[in-house]
């Protein structure tokens, strides 16, 4: 130890305090390395469950891109000198299989953390288990409001815009462009639908109530069509239609609005803006629909020179050439892998689960390569809302025209 020559009577403890707080960085003693299960001097082990098989298997690409990204990092020396062992397991979008795979990752593989797992129902099935074990469940590919509950479930954080965030921003847009709007709403009769409905209506009420919901219609997933609900809404006098639906019901409702000759301002939940849904509805019928956007898309000319898109394309061509270059789900997986890598990098030599959670929950301001410029993560230890600023976009019949400025909830 180098003593302070002017105060030789200082205790060793006092000297250590002074050295750690005042000396230049090269002279500060290295922090003690700390490890939980899944971490060591040479390795960091992390996991994930996504559907590599079954009806949701198109999302398996999230795992394949994660494998590619961490392989690339490992070839460059890993993270803080440690190689990342990433285990992406198949849950077939089944809650029981998700439980089985998650338990294996935690109890047999002993991963440090999980990230990027998919689906509200499967992840709900392991929500309490992972929190009881103190295992980080990060960057979930679901936007359900339940994931923002740091007081009761501090180990779980969503990775997508929360449904209430999306609803509030769409409501603010309606108030701005149609302050006297008469709004008709179709919503799925479950927690998904209600996650959008309540926050949307509250923004309208807080704005003074001039823009009002004049009719609500619900549907159940088991219903073959939503035609009768759309007929009722079209006759209500509504000049705004908020379509809180998924899958087949989204395509049917967009097509039915056109068939009825009803011409409201249409709002659509972002999860239903995929090209397969719009193609089934008829792209011409979807023209003019408004939805939120927060991410870039690969495979489109306007993004091909974007540095983040180019970096993803380089990774894809080298490590996963079987993945199509326009696969935006793969690009989303890349963005989340980069983000998880950043969380681990910030952990330094304190690779405990508590520190992984600390770094994830203080990620506010970090910009994923998947995000549009102007969008960053907004996590804080008290508020796990992944992002609070999004863009309004309008479908042109071919592409989404993104607004110049983002909106905040």
Automatic annotation (TrEMBL):
Keywords: Signal. Residues 43-391 form the Leucine-binding protein domain. The keyword Iron does not apply. Pfam families: Peripla_BP_6. It comes from the Bacteria. Belongs to the leucine-binding protein family. This is Amino acid/amide ABC transporter substrate-binding protein (HAAT family). It comes from Bradyrhizobium huanghuaihaiense. The lineage of its organism: Bacteria, Pseudomonadati, Pseudomonadota, Alphaproteobacteria, Hyphomicrobiales.
């Amino acid at each position: 130890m180098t003593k302070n020559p002017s105060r030789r009577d200082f205790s060793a403890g006092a000297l250590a305090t002074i050295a750690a707080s005042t000396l230049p960085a090269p002279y500060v003693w290295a922090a003690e390395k700390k490890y939980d299960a899944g971490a060591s001097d040479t390795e960091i082990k992390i996991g994930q469950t996504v559907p590599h098989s079954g009806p949701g298997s198109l999302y398996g690409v999230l795992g394949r891109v994660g494998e590619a990204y961490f392989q690339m990092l490992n070839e460059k020396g890993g993270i803080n000198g440690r190689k990342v062992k990433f285990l992406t397991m198949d849950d077939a979008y089944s809650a029981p299989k998700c439980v089985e795979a998650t338990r294996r990752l935690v109890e047999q593989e002993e991963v440090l953390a999980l990230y990027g797992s998919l689906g509200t129902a499967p992840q709900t099935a392991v929500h309490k288990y992972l929190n009881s074990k103190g295992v980080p469940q990060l960057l979930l590919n679901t936007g359900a409001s339940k994931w923002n509950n740091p007081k009761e479930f501090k180990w779980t954080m969503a990775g997508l815009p929360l449904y209430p965030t999306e609803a509030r921003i769409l409501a603010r847009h309606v108030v701005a462009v149609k302050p006297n709007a008469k709004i008709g709403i179709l919503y799925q009769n479950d927690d998904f639908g209600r996650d959008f409905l309540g926050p949307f209506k509250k923004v309208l009420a807080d704005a003074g109530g001039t823009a009002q919901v004049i009719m609500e219609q619900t549907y159940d997933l088991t219903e073959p069509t939503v035609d009768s609900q759309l007929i009722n809404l079209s006759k209500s006098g509504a000049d705004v239609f908020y379509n809180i639906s998924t899958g087949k019901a989204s395509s049917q409702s967009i097509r039915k609005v056109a068939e009825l000759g009803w011409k409201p301002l249409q709002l659509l939940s972002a999860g239903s803006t995929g090209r397969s849904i719009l193609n089934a509805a008829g792209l011409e019928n979807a023209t003019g629909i408004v939805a939120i956007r927060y991410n870039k898309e690969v495979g489109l000319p306007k993004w091909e020179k974007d540095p983040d898109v180019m970096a993803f394309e380089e990774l894809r061509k080298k490590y996963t050439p079987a993945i199509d270059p326009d696969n935006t789900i793969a690009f989303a997986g890349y963005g989340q892998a980069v983000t998880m890598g950043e969380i681990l990098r910030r952990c330094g030599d304190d690779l405990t689960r508590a520190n992984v959670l600390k770094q994830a929950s203080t990620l506010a301001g970090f910009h994923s390569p998947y995000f549009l410029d102007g969008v960053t993560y907004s996590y804080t230890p008290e508020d796990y809302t992944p992002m609070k600023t999004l863009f309004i976009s309008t479908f042109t019949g071919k592409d989404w025209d993104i607004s110049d400025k983002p909106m905040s909830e």
